[in-house]
Design brief:
It is built from 4 helices and 19 strands. With about 325 residues, it is an alpha+beta fold.
Length: about 325
């Protein structure tokens, strides 16, 4: 009887040891281990092996880092704002905003899944309504036009960039920029002409000159000064003492803040070009003479070509 009891306890001990061993070797549910292996393509992306252990199975899932990493096509698709398919190849373009303290003073432009341009501004900025894929220098290859609208006060402002693919990357073509970071004005001059009331608008790079008759402007302010001498006397004195007495060639007007007001697509002699609008003023923004429109494109070296100019006077002066 003692012998059977010893065999029974030995059998129980074996069962307990077997059960303990089974519990020790059983895989833990949903435990994940992650490691990286180098990819061999040009972007040197990382591909990860994720091991997922379930109750009764083990599987390996390959996921591409491009689906989740900052700066990847999938990341831009998730975090960027779509702006349309500008080159018509079926792939969406995006803009991704960023900046300090939540202010969007920077953005990245994503073209065909790749960041090709980044823009920094001195104030909050948005991509404008116009983004185009068009040949602007007659070389048979399209450039990318982007317009930007910084949030400025008192007067309009539109910035722009023309991007050209060259040497495997994208380069920004010439852009006129004033001393003030917010002033992206063309090199425009407003000078006194040969006659008493003659003002001449010209732009560097163009042989064209536009003459403005300032007599309606002078009469306008004189009439208002009679009705309110105190309010308009200063402007009348500016014309009496300075503008009308200026020598030929002296500066008698300026471009309005903050530079280019608008950019749009246009054509010149049947070829695509850009049309920029800038304001022209005399004594100040209250003495607004009218809008100057500049038609321009680029040469094959990436330099601006001013093709033509037009002036649209302020209606209130009855030019």
């Amino acid at each position: 009887m003692k012998k059977y009891r010893q065999l029974f306890f030995a059998f129980i001990t074996v069962l307990l040891l077997a059960a303990a061993a089974l519990l020790m070797t059983r895989p833990k549910p949903f435990e994940k281990k992650t490691g990286g292996i180098g990819d061999t393509d040009e972007k040197e992306q990382q591909k990860y092996i994720v091991e997922s252990y379930g109750e009764n199975d083990a599987s390996i899932e390959n996921t591409d880092d491009s689906e989740q990493s900052h700066g990847s096509a999938k990341w831009y698709e998730k975090n960027g704002e779509p702006i349309g398919d500008i080159d018509g190849n079926g792939q969406q373009e995006y803009v991704v905003y960023s900046g300090e303290d939540g202010a969007n003073t920077h953005f990245d432009f994503i073209f065909n899944g790749e960041k090709i341009y980044e823009h920094d501004d001195e104030c909050v900025v948005e991509l404008g309504d116009l983004a185009a894929y068009i040949d602007l220098n007659e070389d048979g290859e399209e450039e990318i036009l982007l317009t930007m609208t910084p949030h400025v006060n008192s007067m309009p402002l539109m910035e722009y960039a023309v991007l050209k693919k060259k040497d495997g990357g994208w380069q920004k073509l010439e852009l006129y920029k004033g001393e003030d970071g917010l002033n992206n004005s063309f090199p425009i001059s407003v000078t006194k002409g040969a006659d008493t009331f003659d003002a001449v608008i010209s732009c560097e790079g163009s042989e064209k000159q536009i003459h403005i008759d300032l007599e309606p402007v002078y009469s306008y302010w004189k009439t208002l000064a009679k009705e309110d001498e105190e309010g308009y006397a200063q402007i009348c004195n500016y014309y009496d003492m300075e503008v009308l007495a200026m020598a030929e060639g002296a500066c008698c007007g300026v471009t309005c803040d903050w530079g280019i007001w608008d950019i749009e697509l246009n054509s010149f002699h049947g070829k695509p070009c850009l049309k920029a609008e800038q304001g022209i003023e005399g004594f100040g923004k209250e003495d607004f003479w009218g809008s100057l429109y500049l038609y321009f494109d680029y040469d094959k070296a990436g330099k601006i070509r001013v093709l033509d100019m037009e002036f649209e006077p302020n209606d209130c002066y009855n030019f």
